[in-house]
Write a structure and sequence with these properties.
It contains 5 helices and 14 strands. The protein is α+β, with helices and mostly antiparallel strands. The chain folds into 2 domains: 23-104, no CATH class; 111-256, no CATH class. The strands form 3 sheets. A 6-stranded antiparallel sheet has the order 4-5-6-12-13-14. A 5-stranded antiparallel sheet has the order 8-7-11-10-9, with helices on one face. A hairpin with a 4-residue loop joins strand 9 and strand 10 (207-212). It starts with 22 loop residues before the first strand and ends with a strand.
Length: 259
């Protein structure tokens, strides 16, 4: 298996610009590297590139070794410094790719419960998708019966970042009083029964916009910078993974989600 060149406009699901002299060439298993001519505005290419490396990463070599890997050379940055894909960067790219793919699955799911109110500060939780029975029921009398017995297939847990819910104008924000009969709880509960029609995660800190079928939009502003002082921004629980956007917009895969 050999690929002599990557076209200048390689068909990808995410926007990017390839160097004209792009080429694939074999590299030893222990030293597979990638050189990327990416500007910060082209950050989205890395999630797809991670997928390409995964697909192309272990072809059968001429020597018959199943562990032969490849090196993708895309040139240098504007100042001549090569972008080298280290193991750490590859891991971060894989996490980003999984995160974006899982976020896409939110589309067309229904938000069937929202957790918010007294005792939680500005923290809120959105439960979407299928209802998954809890191993132990919640005892909080302020949440719905459905939420006491079930949790969402997908959960967005807004921790300490600023947020705003709007419908043509602001309905409520993270600064709105959170009394159980107040505007924050009432505004957030208006999302129950609406489908998610779009989700956007924006660099560099993964600010999130969730758009609903009733034209409501929930904006998350990842303004937490210091973990000890500010806390974390938000987490996204997919069917089997938990992604955390921590202080400084650092994205991590915290764990595999327990059934």
């Amino acid at each position: 298996m050999s690929i002599d060149a990557v076209p200048e406009a390689y068909p990808l699901s995410l926007p990017c610009v390839w160097a004209a002299d792009s080429s694939w060439r074999p590299a030893p298993r222990h030293r597979a590297q990638t050189l990327l001519p990416l500007r910060p505005t082209q950050w989205t290419v890395v999630s797809t590139l991670a997928l390409i490396v995964a697909v192309m990463g272990s072809p059968q070599s001429e020597a018959g070794s199943p562990y032969y890997q490849w090196q993708l050379t895309l040139g240098n940055t504007e100042n001549g410094t090569p972008w080298v894909l280290t193991d750490e960067r590859l891991e971060a790219m894989n996490i980003l790719n999984d995160f974006l793919n899982e976020l896409r699955k939110l589309r067309d799911t229904e938000c069937w419960a929202v957790g918010a109110g007294e005792g939680t500060g500005s923290r809120i939780t959105l439960h979407c998708g299928r209802k998954i029975e809890r191993g132990r029921s919640l005892t909080n009398p302020n949440v719905s019966e459905a939420l006491r017995q079930f949790k969402g297939e997908y959960v967005i847990f807004v921790q300490d970042c600023a947020w705003r819910l709007e419908l043509n104008e602001a309905i409520c924000t993270s600064k709105t009083p959170n009394n159980n009969d107040g505007p924050m709880v009432a505004g957030l509960h208006s999302l129950v029964g609406q489908r998610i029609v779009a989700v956007t995660a924006s660099p560099p800190a993964y600010d999130l916009i969730v758009e609903f079928s009733g034209a409501s939009k929930l904006h998350l502003f990842c303004d937490c910078f210091d973990q000890e002082r500010d806390g974390g921004n938000y987490s996204f629980h997919s069917a089997n993974q938990v992604f955390v956007v921590g202080a400084g917009g650092v994205l991590t895969l915290e764990s595999r989600r327990k059934p």
